[in-house]
Every structure is written in structure tokens, then in C-alpha cells.
Write a structure and sequence with these properties.
The protein has about 625 residues and is mainly alpha-helical. The chain folds into four domains: about 1-230 and about 235-245, Tetratricopeptide repeat domain (Serine Threonine Protein Phosphatase 5, Tetratricopeptide repeat); about 265-425, Tetratricopeptide repeat domain (Serine Threonine Protein Phosphatase 5, Tetratricopeptide repeat); about 440-535, Arc Repressor Mutant, subunit A, CATH 1.10.10; about 540-634. It is about 70% helix and about 5% strand. The strands form two sheets. A four-stranded mixed sheet has the order 3-2-1-7. It has a three-stranded antiparallel sheet with strand order 4-6-5. α7 (about 90-100) packs antiparallel against α8 and α18 (about 310-325) packs parallel to α20.
């Protein structure tokens, strides 16, 4: 009856009975010793694995095939639940190959299903490149479809789910998720499978960017842990609670949750210690503390290698390459990236490929290799869109935002790039040069003044009072940000007294808000501004581009970047600033912007002339003549 007692969570009763049994008789009875080891798994998985190792040898000596298969399955599961050193799985995978050759016909279909599903779980953590893994997954998937036994079906489902989660196959994880949700709330099921389900549903929520949903599942797992007294997965659940808080953009809660995990985790458990260092490195990096992040990640890298946790090793390797590039140690970064490439090349693991493509894009971006960056960004976004992944280990807005903005600018997976950028409040506002961004309000001042709301042109009719349009032009002319109310009053109502000017301005602002949107205009501390969270002004984009071009020319950046910025500058200058406005206070800004434009065309032409790029010089001089002709016509 040991099997039924263990299934109902009464493993402690079996341990108590077995320990009351004479030790000599227990050791001599291989099956009795086996059940004692199985009962030990939730309490002391390492001791269980040690006893099962002896059991396996005894079963082998007795040519007990059922015993061999049973001991193998239980031992591998015990090593996995130990959250310690997975290198011990190497011996068991060798035994796996030997058993399949010598005893290919497992005498029990149920045991065979457990055997293959457990092998999938072991290889997912230990060696995702194993040549048998794909075949084992297909066998387990077939068994999941045909097996009617509830507990066995759930076991195969969780092992497959674990494989899907750690290989980044979210499309497949979604298929088995309904089975998980039924099992999670079934109190008749053993605690360990339910905890595993909570863990996997939490990971699924994180991948999809649903941090709050993930927290609900992970806390449910903690609850099951406390109720059952089985703490095997408590620390890894707690670590993922920290990850879910990061997903929500709450770094303070993430740090608190990680500290809770670190306070309770056994420092002697290699894999859990590595996870603690890896998560610490991630949080330090998110806070901009690169030195501490690098140090913690280096510890994680050493430990994941030591305890043969391949997925952790790949993630730590990716972060190391990124950190080195950020510290301008590009040769070392490329060396680490080469190691990452070697690991990823022989596997189809999506999670590894995500780390590889993202790291490659980041290194290319930082080193100024635009074509390589675009290729890696395209590969990265294609993969995450296919699997509907928006969040993953090592996710950092400071890395993703510039790459996703490049994707947006180059029309690469635009919809999905925007979805990723809108995950939480840790992402910065889009850069002003990104005209393609779906700004709710676009205000154009070069050439004919116009305003577009949600892409639709707002037409000024005869019903639009002149003062409203004058106010709009004045706010634009004075920069669009922190324009003094006193200054606006002086240029719009020069002949009126103070109180009348203030009242007139308040009325005009109110009417302008009705025309272009209530949230579009901010008045604060005697200053008027366009709301830059929802408004885009071509003047801002032009001025930001000028600053970037100044920097590129001063630092003698590569030709490709200078051309890109110069073309962007010319693209924003559609004509004279506020060309339809004949107000005297507009003219100084018009002349200033014309001088800035011509000065930077000349600087760019001189730059290209120095490198004997004659065609580009001619192009720029022709553009200057075109602009001069346009300005004269206006």
C-alpha cells in the first residue's frame, strides 16, 4: 500500500514505519528500501537519491526490470527536487541509455510513461542538447493524449510543461495550461504536483507579461507548501515571486521577495544559491548598479556550470556578455558571446535563442554595427512574437528600449515591439525622433502649421477664434515647454492690463484644450507646456536630432550614423518654421532654425568631404539650394 499512501501525501507515516523496522532487514529487502527512499523524496531528496542508487544496483543484480525502471525514475526525480547539484544526472542518463538497450520492453505501460516523462524533465535542466530529448518529448506528448489515468496524465503534463517553459515554447505550454488549472485547485491531488503546477502557471504568466496573474499562482504554490509541510519548491517559488514583481515594474517588492528567498534557502544547495546570485545580478542591473550586477552574475555563472544547470548557465553567459559591452570591454564581450553562440548553435531551445539574439543585438548596437543589430533585432522579435513572450529572465528596459525603438523606426514587428514597450512603467518614453510612434497628438510647425489627433487632421474653420490659433503658434514658437504666461500675455495682448491679460489667457487656454484635447496643455507655476506624454512636436524632434548630429560630428562617428541623422534632420524641415504666421515674434525663431539647419548641412558636407565622399557632398549642397529656394518662395 506504500504507493497509495505516498500519492495521498502520507510519506511521513511510511518513513516512521520504515525507521522502526530493523535496519538490517530494511537493507536486505530491496523493495522495502525502495519505498523508504521514495517516501524520503519530499523530505530529503538527496538522501533519497543516494538510497535509490543502491536500490538500482540491487535491482540490476537481480535482473528486476520493474525495479530498475522504478528506481531510475524515482532517483532522477529526487535529484531534480533537490535543487542542488544536477551533475549527478550524468550517471543516470548513462544508465538510461544502457537500460533502453538491454531492457527495451518496460513491463508496465504506466511505469514506461513515468520513465520517459522524467527523462524529459532531467534533460531539460541538465542537457537540452541531448540527441534523445526531442524523441522523448514526442513520446510523452503521445502518451499525454492517450492515457486516461488522472494522476499519470497530470504527471506527464507537468513534465512536459516544465520542458515547454524552460525551452520557451509558450504556444505549447498554453495547450496544457487548462489541465494545470484543473489540477491546481484539486485538493485530492498530492501536494508536489500541485506546487509544480503553480510554479509553471507562474512562469507562463511572467512570459506573457501578466505579473499580477503570475503572483496569484506563485502565492498559491507557497500556500500549498505551508499546508502540506513539504518545502521542496518553496524557495524557487519565492524567487519567481521576485521575478513577477520585476514584470510589474516594482523593484522594491522584487528586492524584498528575493531577500525572503535568500533568508530561507539552504546555502549548501548549489542550484538555489546560483538562482539567488542570478536574480540579485538582474535586480542590481535594473537599478543601474553594474559593478554589483557583474559580480553576482559571475558567481551565478560559476555555480550553474558547477551544478550542471544549463538553462541558468546560458542566461548568466548572456548577461555577462551584455555587461562587458556596457563596460566598453568589447573584445571580452565578443569572446563570451562566442561561448554563448557555441552553446545555442546545437539546440532549438527558444529561451536560449532569445538570450542569444538579444545579446547579439545589444553588442551590435553598442559597437555601432547597424546591419548586424537589425538582423538580430529581427530574429529576436520574430521569435518572441511567435511564442507571445514579452518578459523573460534578464529582461531590462535599458537594453530593450533602444532596440525596440530601432525596430519601430525600421518597421520591424512594429505591433509586437510596441506591446513589449508598454509592459510596465520602467520603460522610458519613446524618443522624439520616432514620428512613427502612435502619438495621440502630433503638432507640425515646419511648413504649414497643422495638428493631427489620432492621425486625423484638425482643420481650422471660421469658427476657430483667431486668438486660439495665435496662442497655439506662440506656444510652439517659444519652444512648447515651460513657456511663461507673462511672455504669452505680452505677445498676444500687448495693450491690455494684467488682470485682463490673465483672464484672456485662461479663456484662450480653455478653448485651445477643447480644440486639441484637454490633456494636451499643461499649466503649472505660471508656465504653459504641451504634454509631452501625449504630444509630439516636430520642433522637438528637429532640435533633438540636431543635438545628436552635433555629437556625432564632434566625436567623428561612423559615416552611416552621420548620414542617418542628417537625413532625419532634413526630413523634419519641410519648410520655414510657422511659415503661414506673420507675427513679429515668430521671425527670430524662424531665422534661428534656418541658421541651425544650414550650419549643420555645411558641417555634414565638410565631414563627408574629408572622407572624399563626393556624391554625398553634392547631395547635401543640392539640398541646401532646395531649402534656400523654398524659403525664398515662402
Amino acid at each position: 500500500h506504500s504507493d497509495q499512501l505516498i500519492k495521498t501525501g502520507r510519506h511521513r507515516s511510511i518513513i516512521k514505519w520504515m525507521e522502526a523496522y530493523p535496519a538490517i532487514k530494511l537493507e536486505k529487502d530491496t523493495w522495502l528500501s525502495y519505498w523508504y527512499a521514495v517516501a524520503l523524496k519530499p523530505v530529503d531528496p538527496l538522501m533519497a537519491a543516494e538510497r535509490l542508487d543502491k536500490n538500482f544496483d540491487q535491482f540490476m543484480a537481480n535482473q528486476d526490470v520493474i525495479g530498475m525502471y522504478s528506481a531510475w525514475q524515482a532517483a532522477v526525480e529526487a535529484i531534480f527536487f533537490s535543487m542542488d547539484d544536477y551533475s549527478g544526472l550524468k550517471k543516470w542518463m548513462q544508465r538510461f541509455d544502457e537500460m533502453r538497450k538491454q531492457y527495451p520492453a518496460c513491463p508496465s505501460f504506466e511505469l514506461k510513461a513515468k520513465f520517459y516523462a522524467t527523462a524529459v524533465q532531467a534533460l531539460t535542466n541538465f542537457n537540452a542538447q541531448h540527441p534523445m530529448l526531442k524523441s522523448l518529448v514526442r513520446i510523452s506528448e503521445h502518451m499525454f493524449r492517450i492515457i486516461p489515468i488522472k494522476m499519470l496524465r497530470l504527471m506527464i503534463c507537468t513534465q512536459l510543461g516544465h520542458y515547454y517553459a524552460l525551452s520557451g515554447q509558450m504556444s505549447k505550454l498554453m495547450i496544457v495550461a487548462p489541465c494545470f488549472k484543473q489540477g491546481l485547485n484539486d485538493d485530492s491531488l498530492p501536494a508536489i504536483p500541485r506546487m509544480m503546477i503553480a510554479f509553471l502557471l507562474g512562469i507562463q504568466g511572467e512570459y506573457h507579461g501578466r505579473g499580477t496573474e503570475a503572483l496569484g499562482f506563485l502565492h498559491k504554490g507557497i500556500e500549498i507548501t505551508e499546508q502540506s509541510g513539504i518545502h521542496l519548491l518553496k524557495d524557487i517559488l519565492q524567487a519567481h515571486i521576485a521575478c513577477s514583481h520585476i514584470c510589474n515594474g516594482d523593484l522594491a517588492e522584487a528586492k524584498d521577495s528575493l531577500q525572503t528567498m535568500l533568508d530561507s534557502a539552504d546555502p549548501g544547495k548549489c542550484m538555489l544559491t546560483a538562482l539567488g546570485h542570478a536574480t540579485s545580478a538582474w535586480i542590481y542591473a535594473l537599478q543601474g548598479e553594474l559593478t554589483f550586477a557583474f559580480e553576482q552574475n559571475q558567481r551565478a555563472l560559476i555555480l550553474t556550470r558547477q551544478c550542471s544547470t544549463e538553462v541558468g548557465y546560458v542566461c548568466a553567459l548572456a548577461l555577462k556578455a551584455q555587461f562587458l559591452a556596457e563596460m566598453h570591454q568589447f573584445p571580452k564581450a565578443e569572446q563570451v558571446f562566442s561561448l554563448l553562440s557555441d552553446t545555442v548553435a546545437s539546440t532549438e531551445n527558444n529561451l536560449y535563442r532569445i538570450q542569444y539574439y538579444l545579446t547579439g543585438a545589444w553588442l551590435a548596437y553598442l559597437s555601432g554595427d547597424q546591419s548586424r543589430a537589425l538582423l538580430s533585432i529581427r530574429q529576436f522579435l520574430s521569435l518572441v512574437r511567435h511564442e507571445q513572450i514579452v518578459f523573460f529572465y534578464g529582461w531590462r528596459p535599458e537594453v530593450l528600449s533602444p532596440l525596440l525603438f530601432i525596430a519601430f523606426e525600421n518597421s520591424i514587428e512594429v505591433t509586437y515591439a510596441m506591446r513589449m514597450l508598454n509592459l510596465n512603467n520602467l520603460f522610458p518614453a519613446p524618443p522624439l525622433y520616432l514620428e512613427k510612434w502612435p502619438w495621440p497628438i502630433r503638432i507640425y510647425s515646419f511648413g504649414q502649421e497643422s495638428v493631427r489627433i489620432d492621425g486625423k487632421l484638425i482643420k481650422h474653420t471660421g469658427k476657430s477664434p483667431t486668438k486660439i490659433l495665435e496662442l497655439l503658434a506662440a506656444i510652439i514658437a517659444f519652444g512648447g515647454r515651460n513657456v511663461s504666461c507673462h511672455q504669452l500675455g505680452q505677445v498676444l495682448w500687448p495693450d491690455s492690463d494684467g488682470d485682463i491679460v490673465q483672464q484672456s489667457l485662461e479663456t484662450a487656454v480653455h478653448r485651445l484644450r477643447k480644440l486639441i484635447g484637454k490633456q494636451a496643455i499643461i499649466v503649472n507655476a505660471g508656465k504653459v507646456s504641451f504634454n509631452d506624454k501625449i504630444c509630439w512636436l516636430d520642433l522637438w524632434a528637429f532640435e533633438e536630432t540636431i543635438d545628436l548630429l552635433d555629437l556625432a560630428l564632434t566625436e567623428k562617428s561612423d559615416c552611416e550614423r552621420v548620414i542617418k541623422l542628417t537625413d532625419r534632420m532634413l526630413g523634419f524641415y519641410h519648410g520655414s518654421f510657422l511659415s503661414q504666421s506673420d507675427y513679429g515674434w515668430v521671425k527670430p525663431k524662424q531665422e534661428q532654425l534656418q541658421k541651425i539647419l544650414f550650419h549643420h548641412i555645411d558641417r555634414a558636407a565638410n565631414y563627408h568631404e574629408k572622407y572624399q565622399e563626393t556624391d554625398r557632398v553634392c547631395f547635401l549642397l543640392e539640398k541646401k539650394l532646395e531649402v534656400e529656394s523654398l524659403l525664398e518662395a515662402n
